[in-house]
Amino acid sequence: PDTIGLYGKSLSKRFSDFPVASGRDERYMAYLRFGAINCVNGAIQNLQPAELYLSQSNQWDLSRNSRVPDSLDQTMAVLRAVNKEGKTIAVLFNFGAHAEVLKGKKEISADFLGPVYREVEREFGGTAIFVNGALGAMVGPAENGKKPESNWESMEKYGKRFAEAVILTARDGWRVENPDIAIKREVLKIPLQNFRFRLAMAFGLIPERSADGRITSEINFWRLGPAWIVTVPGEPYPAFAELLRRRMSGVPNFIFSLANGLWVNRSRKRRKND
């Protein structure tokens, strides 16, 4: 579903970049907000002491960049939370790749993340949580360096291989002793230079977010013991992630993409460094 308003009806396929109506459904947006609130409330109601296990690995054949082949962020970072009985509460894993093995299929699924969640939860118990990383320009699943075939069998095969990488990485996790926790948030005011966005807001296709010619976005930073977590709006390019990792001192470092302010850089055309 279109949560921004960019993908509404257009006059023809030739002019698909110029919608004449917003694709945003406010009923669906209300459903998303309600679901998010329920998730937060559920997490609060089930708070419990936990031990954290952290791990990191490089995955050389899980992703490919169809636009800039030599640009990839192949870091997989994993956080596993375990309760006082030694049972896994959750396994969170961070890696950059669009969940799009089944491109073009008009069926609802979690794509390769379906088998990933199944296999990871079967191995550890608890809840498997995937957070995407540097997936921009355009990073997707890979099978021997090539795009997997778009069918259920191929999706299942890739999902199991991805799950195996998560499981092996998590097994190598080290226990964090009494981790300190820090949280910071930075609000950004960014000049809106994209003419199409300005036009779309003027015609009501996108909700107005630019009262003074700038749009508001944000970046969040969390520290969990030695681990650093940074949220990035939109779909950051792998080259950007490389620059960011050079400035991060965590062990491991997590880069959460598609965070608050997704549409800020949704239509960027630069393919390498920004």
Assign a percent range to the helix content.
25-40%
Globally, the shape reads globular
- Structural class of the secondary structure composition? alpha+beta
* Alpha-carbon Rg, integer: 20 Å
Mean pLDDT: 90
Placed side by side, the strands forming the largest sheet appear as 5-4-3-1-7
Total helices: the number is: 5
Biggest sheet details: 5 strands, mixed
Q: How widely separated are the two ends?
A: 29 Å
Q: How many E strands?
A: 11
Quaternary status = single chain
Summarize it:
The chain is an alpha+beta fold.
Describe the structure.
- This protein has 274 residues and is an alpha+beta fold.
- Among the domains are: 1-47; 49-176, no CATH class.
- The chain has 5 helices and 11 strands, in the order αββββαββαββαββαβ.
- Helix 2 runs parallel beside helix 3.
- The chain starts with 25 loop residues before the first helix and ends in a 15-residue tail after the last strand.
